Amino acid sequence: MTKLKQFDALKLFDFEESNFHLTVHGQNYYELVYIYKGSGIHEINNNSLAYKAGDLFVISPEDQHNFKIEKRTRVIAIKFTDDYFSNSNHWTQQNQTINKPIAIMNNKLLKEIKLDLNPEIRKILRNTIDNILLYNSDGSLSTSPLVFHQILSIFGIIIETMTKMLLFGINDFPAKELLISYIHQHIYEPKQIQIKQIAAHFNIAPTYFSTYFKRNFDMGYRDYLTAYKITLIDKRLASGLFTFRQIADEFGFNDESHFSHFYKNSKGVSPSAYSRSKK
């Protein structure tokens, strides 16, 4: 598999084609991918997400992705490294603590589903992309405070959309968002999301963690884990690309029976029945 490399803090790519010029690949940088026009399928980490004009995707260094173009597509790719935010002179003391773009880029849920952008937000996002494209002709993209805050506004769009979708109660940044991001990053590692482990990671007393979580997210920690796991599992079952054994192994269940019992208790139907309903 090809591994693309970039060492500049920020680069902008604007291209239009009928056949994507790469195969499945990884990269050492982060990437905001905006679909300016066209349609097709975005394949990322074994997930296939249909895309159309106005859609936005986030790509991280651990991801593998590719595009299957169905209708000639124009892509605007904003590519940046950790240095773009960590070494930026454009942060203020205030927003340095309330914005965590890299944590958002690493959110695994954003690789499983597509952001559901409403028409008004799509217009705002399109205008933001146009602003960055217009400025790009100047040649000082990576050092521009104007471009920096335009990119931050894209993260604002992502955050607002996430709160209206599957993430619960993430308005208080960074603590809540980082906690959710940690859960999503380690959802396939049961030991890492045990209360004892996650409480220690965030320096919260284990005996208080469940109360803290429910107070901040309006649902119990176990309930949240179950809801998130079911969301991811449903995607795999609906795709028809995964066996029960593979799903059981991926999510740390002892065996297929353990997985099936968990699923049926959570949804009221067996994974087999759910799979059949999606065919």
Short key terms for the protein model shown above:
279 residues, Arc Repressor Mutant, subunit A, alpha+beta, 5-stranded antiparallel β-sheet, 2 domains, Jelly Rolls, two-stranded parallel ribbon, 45% helix
Describe this structure in words.
By secondary structure, the chain is an alpha+beta fold. Strand 4 and strand 5 (47-52) form a beta hairpin. The strands form two sheets. Strands 2, 4, 5, 6 and 7 form a five-stranded antiparallel β-sheet that branches. The protein has a two-stranded parallel ribbon with strand order 1-3. Residues 93-99 and 168-174 have low confidence and may be disordered. It has twelve helices and seven strands. It folds into two domains: 2-163, Jelly Rolls; 186-277, Arc Repressor Mutant, subunit A, CATH 1.10.10.60. The chain has helices spanning 82-86, 95-98, 101-105, 119-136, 145-163, 175-185, 195-201, 206-217, 221-239, 244-250, 256-267, 271-277; strands at residues 2-4, 10-17, 25-27, 30-44, 47-52, 56-59, 65-80.
Question: Helical segment tally?
Answer: 12
Q: Characterize the largest beta sheet: strand count, sense, and whether it forms a barrel.
A: 5 strands, antiparallel
The CATH architecture designation of the largest domain is: Sandwich
CATH superfamily of the largest domain: Jelly Rolls
Average pLDDT score:
86
Strand content: 15-25%
Poorly predicted segments: 93-99, 168-174
Please state the overall shape, judged from the principal axes of the Cα atoms: globular
What letter string, H or E per element, gives the SSE order?
EEEEEEEHHHHHHHHHHHH
Q: What is the CA–CA distance across the termini? A: 31 Å
